[in-house]
Amino acid sequence: MNYLAHLYFADNNTESRIGNLLGDFCRGVDLTALSPATKAGLMQHRAIDRFTDAAPEVHAAKLLFAAKRRRFAGVALDVLFDHYLIKHWPVFHPEPFLLYKSRLYQQLWQDRALMPERMATTISYLVPQDWFGSYASLEGIGQALDRIAGRLRFANEFSGVISDFTAYQPQFEQLFLQFFPKLQAFVRQYQAAQPACAGN
Predict the structure, then answer these.
(1) Which residue intervals of 23-96 are DSSP H helices?
(2) Which tops the pLDDT comparison, 4 or 143?
(3) What is the pLDDT of residue 196?
(4) Are residues 25 and 118 in contact, defined by beta-carbon separation less than 8 angstroms?
(5) Cα(179)–Cα(173) distance, rounded to whole angstroms?
(6) Separation CA 39–CA 19 (nearest Å)
(7) Long-range contact list for 140-147, CB < 8 A, 24+ apart?
(8) What are the pLDDT digits (tens) for 79-91?
(9) From residue 111, how far is each of 22, 115, 131, 187 by CA, in Å?
């Protein structure tokens, strides 16, 4: 799952938000120095990623990509699933998405001083450029993924992955709608199993 989904499952506090994002920014971070609540967020991020990687719906979605781009299907699905989470937001969250996003941006901006450098740098782009707003459209996620392709340090055919999305959009959307409630149930069970001292 991508940034929005991990933040969706975080508790409403700085340590949990940072921890739930940290799985994408661990390089160079002394994990032994993390607070219990931040480490709990990181462990939840990793548990969500493991569950997602093993889900049959995710495996089926990866097979919809052209063979030349299937190597990067996991990265593409992370962003695409954020798109579908936004599209179907009222099903999964009681607060209107625009209000949630505005509050989340304010919180992330205020949290920057406590973030690892790479995470803080990403947030310094994410908030002003309204990445989550752009994910609401297929064109926006296509542009985001083309930027990712441009940062890869080796030749690839990842650019243009939006063509796979548009060709199989109903199938991708149905697989997301089958998968996300299962992920919600998994996270509820995971959180219930954590000791109270972990900050959940």
Answers:
(1) 36-54, 56-62, 73-87, 89-92
(2) 4
(3) 66
(4) yes
(5) 10
(6) 6
(7) 140/83, 141/79, 141/80, 141/82, 141/83, 141/165, 144/79, 145/75, 145/76, 145/79
(8) 899 999 999 999 9
(9) 13, 7, 17, 24
41, 20 contact by CB (below 8 A)? yes
Every domain of the chain and the residues it spans? 3-198
- State pLDDT tens for residues 24-35: 898 878 888 889
In order of 12, 76, 167, 190, the CA distances from 194 in angstroms are 17, 31, 41, 7
Q: For residues 146 and 159, is the Cβ–Cβ distance under 8 A?
A: yes
> pTM for the complete prediction?
0.90
CB atoms within 10 A of CB 79: 22
- Helix ranges, 88-168 (H): 89-92, 97-111, 117-126, 131-134, 138-151, 162-167
Q: From its phi and psi, is residue 199 left (phi > 0), alpha (psi between -120 and 50) or beta? A: left
